[in-house]
């Protein structure tokens, strides 16, 4: 294992500025053209931000809030805070203002660096309700000309006072930086949590340093690698990939121009290292499928043939297994004509390693990318463990597991089947919350993940569900909602599913259709619809979803553990489950208990055998205003399979 | 506000044969203000804009740009004089990309000859690069990076309106004429458009003449409002005065009785 005594992220910054000064640390678009920030320049700018903050009163031990999309300046500010012995606290940029109050107060934030007017407006709105917030800096001055509030500055102003400060005290920056210890807290990540208030997960430099170093070594990442930073900075995965691993290896972090341009930016950059949750890989595949359906007969046929060949030998070739010469040649031919151009169109041409995590990924989806030669793998971890617990090694990849314990990590299962973890990446504790910490870290130092898992015959860890969600049906047989929901969500037409059945005699489901996929399907079938609510209520849509559910039931009937948990009745919700309405977490996990409570009349209707149910739901718009939508929801029956007793 | 006059219309009358479109209308526009023209359908609002940028020539009356009288106005003169506009029914090149459409707004700034443009040499090249930079600034300003290379015909209505605004801005106008920029938009799109209009007004200091039917929007963002009805001016003043003007209420806003 790699030793990190007294190493900190700022010290790594100095090393890179010295070792690879001309290599790009960040890339971002300015006026449509990619601009590079070299490690040398990066170091200078970070020094200026740090000195600017210090001259305005930011001190060792203080927390700095960062809010915005992935921008180099925000990553730099993260290092700058750590240079001064402070702690970075990134917040979810799409959170509404009132949700930010809790975190700002809990972390006693007095300084914030934000991206643009949108975030400034939010902070100004809630400033009076926060205990400490004083000083704010914004990166993009657009629309902020007329703002005269005290304590509001542009980041250019911060850099300027930083320059002045470091000229008058030239040794300040280095002496502050050198005081840093690897045991100092470097970051607090607030978990959105499927229940209750968010908790601040405090990690020391050494946790993310070790997680970053070990994982970078595991996948042989180096300073020549490129990554696209597009997932929320407040999410642990982004902090591991775009911050910890990038700072450890010196690779280039590419920041997309805007949220809408991520896909085209990805094509332009061609990252060599990439992470995406399953839904993004699914979107990509949906795009490909939709466009192939519009293609001519010849192209369609060629594509189908290529895909058959890829399915046949693609994964074996990637895993280095022996494949016949003729198949190899055929694969090489299709690679030249189909796979490579397709990967290029998706921005996956240069990928050496790609990861997915967060949710289960469908077997077909997973195999699709691997068979094209994209080295897609899975990992497992949570905020409390720097997203670093299990990794799949090259050539030992399975779609339904998360791999082996990562270097430096220990893994065991409790008597009840809960996954327990100990090792280099486990957090110091929840910020100012020893009670909550004691609940999840036991006296032996094991972190209780709350996930139910099993170790399969090859030693891979397989995650089944949240342990608190694993229940018993009325007949005392096992009920695992997530397991069933995942099977449902593997269908491209189903975006989200919530399954109920704990302590009941049958299983029922809420379905969210995938609007893009379904709308396209409806157009093809000449089904007219006016919008989401209308489409979701169409009989044809119900029929098509029923078909998916019937297939899941066939699947379940063959599983001896869960054959009794087939879906009996279902309905299609009239609105998408939304984090703004608290139905999902910011990382898009279903808040099961909340949904059950909010939609109680629907669950009652599903169990009482009604044909339809009226529901009125409050919705929150992006700017925090409230509205309501209502609909009469049809309830449909699914086909259950007989199970031999 | 500086109250420096950028545009003054004096006793404008316009008729098409026997139809009187505008009768004896006078009003002015100050530097840096948002000046709205409202009125029922057929009141002469679009005709008024067409008079200002020289599409129509009024039979009577004078137009003053910064104190200078303009006898014979044409759209080309207006464009060179710093007047840009958007249209009620979008007038973009549907088959061209967003970027190219906005580049056409720079037409008045390009001086190089046909040949050097065709061969992409010398002056034409430098010129295009400088103009492209300006266009990219506007793309960034109006947040349309993601559709930079999309053909305009493929875009939803709300975005096409934004592209039209971008093209008008590309001409770096001192007066911007907006003809119903929010017609047919949903609430969210309208909010975005309002934000952009206000920002254009603040950031670039452009005077804006706005025709709009959404009274909420007009009263919110206008500095002063002119009301037309059957080609005649029936009100002129601050939004609050207009709201309480009995003539305007009976002609346009409607009463509770």
Structure, explained:
The complex is a heterodimer of chains A (645) and B (257). Chain A has 645 residues and is an alpha/beta fold. Among the domains of chain A are: 9-207, ANL, N-terminal domain (Rossmann fold, 3-Layer(aba) Sandwich), CATH 3.40.50.12780; 471-637, GMP Synthetase, Chain A, domain 3 (2-Layer Sandwich), CATH 3.30.300.30. Helices cover 39% and strands 22% of the residues of chain A. Chain A is built from 21 helices and 29 strands. Chain A has a five-stranded parallel sheet with strand order 4-3-5-6-7, sandwiched between helices. Chain A is globular, with a radius of gyration of 26 Å. Chain B is an alpha/beta fold and 257 residues long. In chain B, 39% of the residues lie in helices and 25% in strands. Chain B contains ten helices and ten strands. In chain B, the strands form two sheets. Chain B has a six-stranded mixed sheet, sandwiched between helices. In chain B, strands 2-1-4-5 form a four-stranded antiparallel sheet, with helices on one face. The chains are: A alpha/beta (645), B alpha/beta (257). Chains A and B meet through loops of A and α5 and α7 of B.
Secondary-structure map with pairings?
The complex is a heterodimer of chains A (645) and B (257).
Chain A lengths: L8 H11 L4 E7 L2 E6 H17 L7 E5 L4 H12 L3 E5 L5 H10 L4 E4 L2 H10 L8 E4 L13 E3 H14 L3 H7 L6 E7 L7 E6 H14 L7 E3 L7 H14 L2 E4 L6 H8 L3 E3 L2 H17 L2 H22 L6 H22 L6 E4 L6 H9 L4 E5 L9 E2 L12 E2 L3 E5 L4 E6 L5 E2 L3 H7 L6 E9 L5 E6 L4 E2 L5 E2 L1 H9 L4 E7 L6 E7 L1 H10 L7 H6 L1 H19 L9 E6 L19 H7 L1 H9 L3 E9 L5 E9 L1 E2 L8
Parallel strand pairs in A: 1-11, 3-4, 3-5, 5-6, 6-7, 10-11, 12-13, 13-14, 25-26
Antiparallel strand pairs in A: 1-2, 8-9, 9-19, 14-15, 15-16, 17-18, 18-20, 20-21, 22-23, 24-25, 26-29, 27-28
Chain B lengths: L4 E12 L2 E12 L3 E5 L6 H8 L7 E6 L2 E3 L4 H6 L2 E4 L11 H7 L9 H6 L2 H20 L15 H14 L4 E5 L7 H17 L3 E5 L3 H7 L2 E6 L2 E6 L1 H6 L1 H8 L4
Helix pairs in contact in B: 3-6, 5-6
């Amino acid at each position: 294992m790699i030793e990190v005594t007294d190493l900190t992220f700022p010290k790594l910054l100095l090393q890179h500025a010295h070792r690879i000064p001309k290599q790009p640390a960040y890339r971002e678009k300015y006026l449509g053209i990619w601009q590079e920030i070299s490690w040398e320049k990066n170091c200078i700018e970070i020094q200026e931000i740090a000195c600017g903050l210090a001259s305005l009163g930011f001190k060792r031990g203080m927390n700095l809030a960062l809010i915005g999309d992935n921008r180099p300046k925000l990553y730099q500010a993260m290092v700058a805070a750590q240079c001064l012995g402070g702690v970075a606290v990134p917040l979810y940029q799409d959170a509404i203002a009132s949700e930010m109050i809790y975190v700002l107060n809990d972390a006693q934030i007095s300084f914030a660096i934000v991206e643009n007017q949108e975030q400034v407006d939010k902070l100004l709105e809630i400033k009076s309700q926060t205990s400490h917030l004083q000083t704010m800096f914004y990166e993009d001055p657009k629309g902020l000309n007329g703002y005269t509030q005290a304590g509001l500055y542009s980041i250019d102003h911060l850099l300027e006072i930083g320059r002045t400060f470091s000229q008058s005290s030239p040794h300040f920056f280095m002496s502050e930086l050198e005081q840093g210890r690897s045991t100092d807290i470097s970051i607090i990540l607030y978990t959105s949590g499927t229940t209750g208030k968010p908790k601040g997960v405090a990690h020391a430099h050494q946790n993310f340093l070790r997680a970053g170093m070990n994982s970078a070594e595991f996948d042989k990442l180096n300073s020549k690698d490129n990554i696209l930073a597009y997932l929320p900075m407040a999410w642990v995965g982004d902090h591991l990939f775009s911050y910890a691993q990038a700072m450890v290896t010196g690779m280039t972090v590419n920041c997309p121009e805007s949220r809408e341009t991520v896909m085209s930016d990805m094509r332009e950059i061609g990252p060599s290292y990439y992470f995406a949750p399953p839904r993004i890989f699914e979107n990509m595949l949906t795009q490909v499928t939709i466009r192939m359906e519009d293609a001519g007969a010849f192209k369609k046929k060629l594509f189908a043939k290529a895909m058959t060949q890829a399915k046949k030998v693609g994964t074996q070739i990637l895993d280095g297994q022996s494949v016949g010469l003729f198949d190899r040649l055929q694969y090489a031919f299709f690679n030249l004509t189909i796979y490579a151009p397709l990967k290029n169109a998706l921005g996956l041409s240069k990928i050496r390693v790609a990861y997915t995590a967060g949710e289960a990924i469908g077997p077909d989806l997973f195999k699709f990318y691997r068979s094209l030669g994209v080295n897609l793998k899975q990992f497992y971890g949570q905020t409390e463990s720097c997203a670093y617990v299990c990794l799949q090694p090259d050539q030992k990849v399975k779609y339904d597991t998360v791999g082996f314990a990562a270097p430096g990590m220990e893994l065991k299962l409790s008597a009840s089947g809960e996954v327990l973890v100990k090792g280099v990446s486990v957090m110091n504790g929840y910020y100012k919350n020893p009670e909550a910490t004691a609940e999840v870290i036991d006296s032996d130092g094991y972190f209780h993940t709350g996930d139910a898992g099993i170790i399969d015959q090859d030693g891979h860890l397989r995650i089944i569900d949240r342990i608190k969600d694993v229940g018993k049906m009325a007949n005392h047989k096992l009920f695992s909602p997530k397991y069933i929901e995942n099977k449902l969500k593997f269908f491209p037409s189903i975006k989200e599913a919530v399954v109920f059945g704990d302590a009941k005699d049958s299983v029922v489901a809420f379905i969210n259709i995938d609007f893009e996929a379904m709308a396209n399907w409806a157009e093809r079938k000449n089904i007219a619809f006016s919008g989401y609510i209308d489409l979701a209520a169409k009989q044809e849509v119900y029929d098509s979803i029923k078909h998916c559910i019937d297939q899941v039931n066939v699947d379940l009937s063959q599983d001896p553990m869960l054959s009794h948990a087939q879906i009996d009745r279902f309905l299609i919700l009239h609105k998408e489950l939304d984090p703004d309405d608290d139905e999902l977490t910011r990382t898009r996990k279903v808040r099961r208990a909340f949904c059950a409570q909010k939609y109680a009349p629907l669950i009652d209707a599903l169990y009482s055998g009604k044909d339809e149910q009226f529901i009125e739901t409050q919705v929150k718009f992006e700017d925090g205003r409230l509205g309501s939508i209502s609909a009469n929801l049809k309830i449909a029956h699914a086909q259950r399979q007989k199970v031999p007793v | 506000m500086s109250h420096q006059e950028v545009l003054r219309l004096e006793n404008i009358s316009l008729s098409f044969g026997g139809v009187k479109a505008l009768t004896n209308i006078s009003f002015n526009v100050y530097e840096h203000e948002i000046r709205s023209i409202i009125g029922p359908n057929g009141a002469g609002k679009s005709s008024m804009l067409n008079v200002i940028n020289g599409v129509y020539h009024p039979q009577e009356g004078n137009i003053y740009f910064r104190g200078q009288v303009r006898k014979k106005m044409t759209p080309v003169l207006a464009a060179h004089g710093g007047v840009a506009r958007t249209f009620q029914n979008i007038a973009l090149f549907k088959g061209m990309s967003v970027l190219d459409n906005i580049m056409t707004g720079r037409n008045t700034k390009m001086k190089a000859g046909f040949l050097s443009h065709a061969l992409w040499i010398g002056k034409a090249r430098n010129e295009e690069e400088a103009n492209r930079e300006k266009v990219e600034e506007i793309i960034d300003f109006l947040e349309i990076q993601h559709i930079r290379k999309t053909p305009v015909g493929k875009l939803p209505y709300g975005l096409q309106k934004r592209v039209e605004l971008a093209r008008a801005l590309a001409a770096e106008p001192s007066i911007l004429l907006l003809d119903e920029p929010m017609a047919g938009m949903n609430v969210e799109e309208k909010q975005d458009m309002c934000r952009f209009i206000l920002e254009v007004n603040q950031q670039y200091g452009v005077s804006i003449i706005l025709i709009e039917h959404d009274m909420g929007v007009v009263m919110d963002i206008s500095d002063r409002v002119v009301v037309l009805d059957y080609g005649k001016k029936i009100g002129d003043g601050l939004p609050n005065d207009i709201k309480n003007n009995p003539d305007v209420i009976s002609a346009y806003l409607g009463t509770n009785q």
